[in-house]
Predict the 3D structure of the following.
Amino acid sequence: MIPNERPVTHREDFSANTQSDLWQDNEQHRAFAELCNAFYERELLKMSNEYGTATNILLKRIGSLPYYIQKAASHIVHLDSPLTLDHQNGTWIYRQSAKCPIQDKQQQQVIKWYQQHAALALVVPVYSKLKGLEMIMLDSIDEIQENRLHTNMHGWFEVAKDYRQDDSQLLVPNKKVMAASCCGHQWRFDKRYTPRPLTLREMLLATRINWKNFKRCL
């Protein structure tokens, strides 16, 4: 030891940056654990309602849950998003618009946007209305043909003359629309309605949204 030099204690060697990093790591670990718990509770309830006594299907789905839940939770805690994360409930929070931000009067802009920017695996918003209940759901493009495209959950949409189906239509992604879809915002008879919890699939899709450029996935 160099003469007259006071030994450095463990506490003194523990820099402010290290403390900050450890605090951040602990926060991320806690958020990850709470997200996993929320997702397990939500998915198990959903599957029990969907499959009932179909034991073989139920067991198969339960077996794959850990992979997808941990993947979603891991991506979410590291996600750079303008939304506030409620990790205890596995949801995002953002101010809800007074009315659903649907683009009814912009059909040509919607058609033009998808003709120019449609790409495989791109996350897109799909407006849905059923019995007066409106919502915007996340979906992804998995097939593209000359004048139409196919989304994973909502099927085919024409992108030449009409971008709608019976009860759903494509929207141009922007911050207001994508925030509404990620937060599960709903409207009933043109009034705000209780937000719905997103499915695990939608939560995974939300982690692929590029908030700086909706034309490309992360």
Summary: The chain has six helices and nine strands.
